[in-house]
Amino acid sequence: MAHGISRRGALIAGTAILAAPLVARAQPARLRFTLDWAFQAPNAFALLARDKGYFRDAGIDVQIDRGQGSGGVPVALAGGSYDMGYADLNPAIKFVAENPDRGIVAVAVLHDRSPLCAIVRADSAIRTPKDLEGKRLAAPDFDAGRQLFPAFAKSAGIDASKVTFLSVSPALREPMLVRREADGVTGFVTTSALALKGIGLDHPAQRVMMYYDHGLNLYGGAILTTRAFIERNPAVVRGATAALMRGFRDTLRNGQEMLDNLKRVEPLTDVALERERHEMNVARVIMSDNVRANGLSSVDMARLQTGIRAVEEAYNLPPRVQAAQIYTADFLPPAADRAV
């Protein structure tokens, strides 16, 4: 009897030894992910992907935090406080141009067009970008629309030296235009157009000049990481990218589901406002002819290179960054999983 128990115990022990590597492999990989800003409709796809279990399906235990602006995301990734993030691609290009050894790279581009714009009053004499000469535009110093205004000016035929910028805090930018203390503002259309509506200047009272309508054809929001993290965790990057793009497609198919989830995560969400922000983001930034034909993250490397050069020129940086440095398609899900 003792011999039987001993033999059974040995079998159990042997089974446990064999199972141990399987248990170890089953442990989910930890991923620290940062968004570009507060939880809002344009970045809520990441929360949806998390809450629908898409990361879990990929064997990833994800932590998603709000950000403090797109410009801070590459800094956080390079510093190691986060592994991956979502942000506008153009500040990342600037960061790579200034810090080529930090290895920031985009593994997916979700916005085929940039949300950058200038907005003036529809009742003003400013009807074309050229009419901005001699006028005053309000924007924070770090505003991407302001920072890239020289590139917009070059493509739209504006003499940028004849445009005066008024430095204001984000909270004061739109009120300056409403009070006619500025002739226009620069920023993201999904931010400024809605902020203006909220303080009395509704959409018909605004004249919006999208940078991409005047020759500055930049890409927008992207999934970012570092080459060092890719080298250590290629399967995590592939799985996280697939999970995020799955959540992103879900928001395009069913915006209400995304909004309901956003409200659960952030109870103070103004659902009506975020619905309008989402619809504007889809119409003006995401759903281009290229995306309809070729799917999400169908990046034209020549177009990307032109955009990189425009960013470098806007910041008075030497031509340094190559498109293949800042973007790789190697971790994208199959084309069928990117169709919209």
Summarize the structure in words:
With 340 residues, this protein is of the alpha/beta class. It folds into 2 domains: 28-112 and 219-337, D-Maltodextrin-Binding Protein, domain 2, CATH 3.40.190.10; 116-214, Periplasmic binding protein-like II (D-Maltodextrin-Binding Protein, domain 2), CATH 3.40.190. The protein is 48% helix and 16% strand. It has helices spanning 2-26, 44-51, 54-57, 72-79, 89-98, 144-147, 149-156, 170-178, 189-198, 227-232, 234-253, 255-265, 271-286, 289-294, 301-314, 323-326; strands at residues 29-34, 60-65, 84-88, 104-109, 116-121, 136-139, 164-167, 184-188, 206-210, 221-226. The chain has a 5-stranded mixed β-sheet with strand order 2-1-3-10-4, with helices on both faces. It has a 5-stranded mixed β-sheet with strand order 7-6-8-5-9. The longest helix has 25 residues, at 2-26. The relative contact order is 0.17.
Quickly describe the structure.
The protein has 340 residues and is an alpha/beta fold. 48% of the residues lie in helices and 16% in strands. Helix 2 (44-51) crosses helix 12.
